[in-house]
Structure formats: C-alpha cells, structure tokens
Design brief:
By secondary structure, the protein is of the alpha+beta class. The protein is 21% helix and 36% strand. The protein is built from 7 helices and 17 strands. The longest helix is centred in the first third of the chain and has 33 residues. The radius of gyration is 52 Å and the shape is elongated. The structure holds zinc ion. Zinc ion binds next to helix 6 and helix 7.
C-alpha cells in the first residue's frame, strides 16, 4: 500500500463516523420536536407572543413564560384547563370581557395638560461670574538682539455678581434671564510688547534730507527714486574689486545675484536692503553721477560702511578710505 492509499483509507473512516453522528443527532432533534408545540398568547393589552412549549396546561404555560394574571384579568381557556386545538391563550380585562368595551371619550382638561408638564417655578439666583482679561499688544522696536515678546503687565481676571431669573420645571432649569450684574473686581488687561527688530539699526547721525537730489539729477537711478524722500548720513567709504583678495572669490557675482558693475554696485550693511539707491554727492562727477545701488554684502561691512565696486584692484586701492555723506533712498 502506498502512502496515498493509506491516506484515502483514513479519510473514508472519518467520513463514516461523521455520517453516523449526524444521523444520531437528527433522531434526537426529531424526538424532541414531537413534543414541542407553538402556543399563541394574547395579553390584555393585545400584545401577541408565540411561545414554544412542551406543556399543555394553561397555568403551566403562563408560569413557564412568567405571566401572572392580575385581579382585573381573566384567561381563556380557564387556567386549570388544557389548551384547545387552536393553541391560543387569551388574557383579557374583566371589564372588556363582560362586553362593556365602551370607548371612554376622555375630556382632557386644562389642569390635566398642565399637570402632565409639571409645575414651573421661578427663582432669583445670584452667581459670581469671572470676567476674563483681555490681551493688548503694543509694538516696540528693538536695537537688534532679542525679538522675544515682553509681558509688560500681567493680566488678571475680574469678577462680577450676576442675578438671574431662572425657571425650573420638574427641578430642571429651562430658562435663565440676566436681571442685573455688579462688578466686584475689574479685570486687568495683559499688555504684551511685541518686539520687532528695527530694519535699519543705524547711527543717530542719520537725518531726513531737506533737499532731494533725485528731483534735479538726470540719471536713470535718480529718476527711479524721485518720489522717495531720502535720509542723509555719513559713511566710511572704501572700494573693492572682484579679486580673491577683496572677495575671497573671483566670479564678480554680488549678493543680489547680479554681476558687479563699476560705478553702479555698492556693498552695504544688512540694515540696507538690496536695491536701496545711494547718492554720494562727493562722487557726482563720476560716470554714474554719484548714483549707486546696494547690490552686495561683505563680512566686514557694517551699517556705517559703504564699499564701492571698482573694476580693478588697483583702482580700489587708489580710492582708499573716505568719510562721505550719502543720500539713502529706500523702497
Ligand atoms: Zn581686489
């Protein structure tokens, strides 16, 4: 016998045992089914239920289903009898059974309606209510450093006494109306100073120009800034070129991304935005008429310095250092 034949032999045995078991169980079910009966029970409120029972006596069936007759109820067939062929047990009210099934036309009075809703009572209730404080922000500028907001005054909740007229129905609050309120303690506003770094933290020597050179100059840059009132300030000016000595690199590309141009490009401190136009009257005879644009930055260039771009290192050296007044046009 090979392995496969052995296996199929075992399977046949299992199937055989299973069939015998099913057969035995089937007989059991059939046997108990023979004794069970469906009985319909109709309660006095006309609720119908069907129960499965092995009992035949009315009292036993009712008991089995935990049904107890009240003194007002009667049952048919009688409690001591066996159930009849229609297998129905009917429970009725004695009054209805005697044929007096008179529908009572009920006259509902106003009092009855009101009583079903429960009495409404009103009470005056006084409660203390918190008045939350408000937060007020004030703008403050800071000379660099921290931008953290500063709490100038801590807020404190206030308190008021409020009197309400409260309506209750069956002990439950159904309405609340404020009648009066009295402040016991005023809230204290929270005041926060919102700090922003002053975009141009510059020296106090800066002043607003009384004359605007842009209105009389003819260069493209001057025309572009004619509507802007410049500020005037003295700068320590120097010059640089695109060599490695001056810039640490040689591609001539400025911080703005544009290529540096002689008599146009100037490097300034971060207090001056890229694009800021600078007019240096002392350089008004140069090809640009003294008009520059902030296009570059530099590690050593503070807000009090301007570094003017030159096309050669020699020219930059020749320029040297000069303290010059400049007009600053910001957008
Ligand atoms: Zn150089």
């Amino acid at each position: 016998m090979n392995k496969n034949e052995k296996a199929s032999g075992s399977l046949m045995k299992i199937l055989g045992i299973s069939l015998v078991l099913i057969f035995v169980t089937g007989i059991g079910v059939m046997a108990s089914n023979a004794k069970l009966t469906n009985v319909k029970i109709i309660l006095s409120n006309n609720y119908e239920m069907t129960v499965l029972t092995t009992k035949t006596k009315v009292s036993e069936i009712l008991e089995e289903n935990h049904i107890q007759l009240t003194s007002e109820e009667i049952v048919s067939p009688n409690i001591d009898l066996e159930i009849t062929q229609n297998k129905t047990i009917r429970i009725s009210n004695k009054a209805d059974y005697s044929g007096e099934i008179a529908e009572k036309e009920k006259v509902i009075t106003k009092e009855e309606i009101l009583s079903s809703y429960g009495t409404i009572t009103e009470k005056l209730v006084t409660e203390q209510v918190v008045i939350p404080f408000e937060t007020i922000t004030k703008e403050a500028t800071t000379q660099g450093g921290t931008t953290q907001n500063k709490i100038v005054q801590n807020g404190k909740n206030g308190l008021k006494e409020v009197t309400y007229k409260v309506k209750y129905q069956n002990e439950v609050e159904i309405e609340r109306t404020e009648i009066s309120s009295k402040i016991l303690q005023e809230p204290v506003n929270k005041i926060v100073e919102v700090r922003t770094i002053q975009i141009t933290s510059r020296s106090s020597t800066e002043r607003v120009a009384t004359v605007n050179p842009a209105t009389t100059a003819s260069t493209t840059l001057a025309k572009k800034v004619q509507g802007i009132t410049p500020t005037v300030k003295s700068f320590n000016t120097s010059a640089y070129c695109s060599c490695a000595k001056c810039c640490g690199k040689t591609n001539g590309i400025t911080a703005s991304g544009a290529k540096a141009t002689q008599w146009y490009t100037v490097a300034a401190g971060s207090g001056y935005k890229i694009g800021t136009v600078i007019y240096i009257p002392a350089l008004k005879d140069k090809p640009n008429g003294g008009w520059f644009v902030v296009q570059d930055r530099g590690g050593a260039i503070s807000n009090s310095k301007l570094d003017i771009y030159m096309s050669s290192h020699n020219a930059a050296l020749q320029y040297g250092r000069k303290t010059l007044e400049a007009y600053v046009y910001e957008f």
